[in-house]
Amino acid sequence: MKKLMSALLALCLALTLTGAALADGTLTFTTGGTAGTYYAFGTVLAQYISNNTDVTVNAVAGNGSADNIDKLDMEVAQLGFVQNDVANYAYNGIRFEQYEGQPVDTFTAIAALYTETVQLITCNPEIKSVADLKGKNVSIGSSGSGVYFNAMDFLAAYDMTEADIVPTYQSFGDSAEALKDGKIDAAFVVAGAPTPAVTDLATSKPTYLISLDAEHVAKLQEISPVYAESVIPAGTYAGQDADVVTVGVKATIIANGQVSDDQAYAIVKAIFEGKEAISEAHAKGAELDLNYAATCGLPYHPGAAKYFAEQGITVETVNP
Q: What mean pLDDT comes out for the span 254-262?
């Protein structure tokens, strides 16, 4: 009962703060854990938009894709970072039990910004394949993150389920600490590489990234067509002496109906016309590309669509 009351009080406080934020025009942008790329890059974007447009954006730490979708649906936040695979599952009401037949379609896309790679990391040199996770203690992401969905897809590609591992549910930072202390055997991390938590781990202890073969990349693409083969180049992390083949999804900013057309237009314009300055503040800025941004499998916010149209690019929008 105490936990329930605490959760309700936290929600009420969040709703109160959100109302205050909207009253002064500020948009809340929910990102990810502080040891991940969502938070670091989201903070840079929020600051740049706030400093260079009439739109004020406040980036806050979040729990990842699924939780961010929930926050936008509840109007606790107005903008959020999501993996486009999870966003597609939610929007179309497919694939996972929490969405099957229960679509969440209260959001639209602003832009896809960069590729998030599914990184399976371990400090155990005996783990060389996803198949080797059977019976092992594996972190599959914090509650509400998109990591869980990717972990389940990876296991499915190897004819395994969550029951075949000993799952723990931890953030990137907590997963890295648990690997460092030998408390878990492996962890899934889904983020732009290099990921701060993995970088820190690899500099303190021998760390290995598990590579996929072509057969299992193809199986993952059968499971979810949004997966694209992705390579983490050798040298991305300390001790990584070979390229690692995996799959990636698109890190996408979404918005709910509280974001006006003018605000969405200003946000997209600032991001893509401020690429040089943004790149100086965060390496992911260098990956900004309009054509990449215009496809994520979701309908786009009308304000975002207006900016893309001015650049000669047509994006999908919600049917009137």
A: 97
